[in-house]
Amino acid sequence: MTSSETTVGRLVAALEARYRPAWAEQWDRVGLVLGDPDAVVRRVLCVVDVVDETVDEAFDVGADLIVAHHPLLLKGVSSVAPTTFKGRIVHRLIKGDIALFTAHTNADTANPGVSDALAARFGLRDLRPLSPRPDDPALGIGRVGTLPSPVTLAELAATAADQLPRTAWGVRAAGDPERMIRTLAVCGGSGDSFLGAASAAGADAYLTADLRHHPAGEHLAAGGPALLDAAHWATERPWCDDVAAWLRAEAPVEVIVSDLDTDPWTLHAASPLSTEQKKEPSS
């Protein structure tokens, strides 16, 4: 783009060349949701979730376009009345002349995509897709790579808590705390459907979000990689930095990344130590 101004339509075209709609899952809803393609864009806000708080932020910073990861209208609705949560947001954005674009599973699949940004937080090398696309094995969901140096699972969990955006959820891990981790699989967002892929990839550990009790337990019982379960928002927030940097280089627009924690979990209380855990170690 060489013009001193750019439009919604031109930015959408660039975004869809990077995150092709054809890469999205059939059930997904991606692309331009709201906005006049001819409207001028001077400021963009990148977010994971389109919720009241991030819409407030868009107004506060004077954004003309929101680039979001999670679709606002993923499931069909019969009304966008302002008395509903989604309808209220739709009305606010239209009245404020703020366009909305979504890149979801197409951004998960892209290379670079959501999981590349997550992998970068751990310095992973020699990346490959966790679940490659059959038609193009360079693309796919998740990434598998090698850590800069081996660490224990306990050390990796601490690193994850430090490197990922802060949330009340934090990071929990499953497996032997002293297990050495050399190869790490990561998947931004809900990833327990790829537990088998993490095992097949030969990973020593798998970091994702929204792991469920039974699938996780059965995976570990079968000898699968150790598990790290982080907050959904935290595993996808790094992508916003990547897409923002790319947009700044692609077009004459200002790009702001939202740091609002939109993870729904807002409080974490750790279980108290047992009597045995409270005892001082013997000398």
From TrEMBL:
Superkingdom to which the source organism belongs: Bacteria
Alphabetical UniProt keywords: Metal-binding
A Gene Ontology molecular function term of the record: metal ion binding
Subunit organization: Homohexamer.
Matches recorded under Pfam families: DUF34_NIF3 (PF01784)
Family of this protein: Belongs to the GTP cyclohydrolase I type 2/NIF3 family.
Record protein name field: GTP cyclohydrolase 1 type 2 homolog
Residues binding a divalent metal cation, per UniProt: 69-70, 108, 232, 236
Keyword Metal-binding: yes
Entry keyword Transport: no
GO CC entries: cytoplasm
